[in-house]
Amino acid sequence: MKSDYFELIEANPVIAAVKNDQGLDTCCDRCGDIKIVFILYGDVCSIGEIVQRVKDAGKIAMVHVDLIDGLNSKEIAVDYIHRHTQADGIISTRPAIIKRGKELGLYTTLRIFVLDSMAYENIPRQLASAKPDMVEILPGLMPKIIRNITKMSRVPVIAGGLISDKEDVMSALSAGAISVSSTNSDVWML
Asked: 125-162: string of b/e by CB count within 10 Å (b at 16+)?
């Protein structure tokens, strides 16, 4: 249920974003407090096993569909993840992918890179089009921008990218982010 997902993120504000097998091992074997995992790597042959490893560790598995080798940028990629893995949800930079995930009942996170004013100004349109459960803003070291986005977004905001220490985590959370995602295992241990 979506409300359970939101409550889990609020109660566990650090999300492990794993980008390789070493990060997966650390997250699954040594980070009991981590409850949500963003899977940022894999291919069509390995993604099922990666997701299963996360699930076996008792964690929520969110697959970044755009980063899985062998999948294309079409909605059918979400169908593949849904049918061939036990993933709880998906992450994508593409609104159409997010929409398909919602149709299939998956948790959805729209990842937005705020690189310039054009990207920033495009956020309301992307949110209206995709209607994600959450939005992840990168880089996550922009308290003023995070604060503004949390005001314009009707869904919770996750800050990710370049989060490297407790100060970064606290800054993002103080700016209104519900959570932070990080590939830095030292942050997972905070």
From this structure: ebbeebebbbbbbbebbbbebbebbbeebebbbbbbbe
How many CB atoms are located within 10 Å of the residue 165 CB? Answer: 13
Pairing, β 36-39 against β 60-64: parallel
* pLDDT one-digit tens code per residue, 72-118: 889 999 999 999 999 999 999 999 999 999 999 999 999 999 989 89
Counting Cα atoms < 13 Å in the Cβ hemisphere of 19 gives 6
Give the pLDDT confidence of 166-190 residue by residue, as tens digits: 999 999 999 999 999 999 999 999 8
- Short-list 164, 163, 134, CA closest to 149: 134
DSSP letters for 19-45: -SHHHHHHHHHH-TT--EEEE---BTT
Alpha-carbon distance 188 to 19, whole Å?
Answer: 14
Give the number of residues written for the chain: 190
**Token reading at 99:** 């929409």
121-128: list long-range contacts, CB under 8 Å, 24+ apart. Answer: 123/149, 123/152, 123/153, 124/152, 126/95, 127/152, 127/153, 127/154, 127/155
Whether pTM > 0.90 for this model: the answer is yes
- The closest of 153, 160, 81 to 114, measured between CA atoms, is 160
Sign of the C-alpha dihedral, residues 151, 136, 139, 96?
negative
